[in-house]
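Recall the central idea of this unit: under ordinary conditions, the amino acid sequence of a chain determines the structure it adopts. In this exercise we apply that idea directly, starting from the sequence alone.
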Amino acid sequence: MSSGLFWLFLLLGLVFGSLGALAAFLITYGEREKHRLPKSRILGEACQAAIFAFFFFVLLSLLVASIMPL
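Accordingly, the structure predicted from this sequence is:
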């Protein structure tokens, strides 16, 4: 695989990972807020979901880049 294509997939993973992390944070925060939990716990769980979503999308894009035939 060419180096340029690798960087393209990495960039796409970072962009969509950031969007996914933001969406995961907002969704998790909104849902946990309905249960009247302490704010620190809500923020902790929302950040945890955002971090997981970010790394999921970045690693998925790197996996696709590594198996894509070129």
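The chain has a mean pLDDT of 92.
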